[in-house]
Amino acid sequence: MCSVFSKLKLKIHGLFYSNKIAKFESQKKQIEDELRLGEKKFFKREISQEAFQLLNSENQRKLIEINAEIALLNAKMKLEKLKPQESMKFTGKRKDKFYELLNEKDALMHSFNEAKKKFFTRKIDEKTYKEILNSNQKKLVRLESRIDSVYIEQAREIIVKAEKKISMNESKKERIKTREISDDLMLQIRKGEFD
What we know:
It is built from 4 helices and no strands. By secondary structure, it is mainly α. The protein has one domain.
């Protein structure tokens, strides 16, 4: 029953993510068409160079964001398909939060790489590239600090469990020692060796 439910849940999530990806792909195609049309008009001298550069930089920025969202959704889809045994030793909500943060980081890194490619191929200007880079760097710093806090929470939990285990082992050792001492005393009393 549980496996049927989990399979159904996977299919529903897969459809959900697929629909979102399809929407982003259609937006991406629309923006690419707009870019081609703007380029045509620029080469026919129907729009000025400034207008073309503004249109190009805005659309390239949108494309980078859309590609990052698509990468994030693909990562989430892959995460849904992972078996619980393959996941890390995080617990419940913390595991979900951790993977969500990692997926966001991957999407940001994808955005960085996409912006870098577009800058080096001169599809976006330096100003747009720096704006994208600065905004993504701020987001990346926040994400990395949140990821670190999840690691710290997990580490604290592990330390507390280890301390409990150590204290339990120590109390067991003490009980064993006292039991051995009491057994020795009882043996001595029985033998009459105890004064």
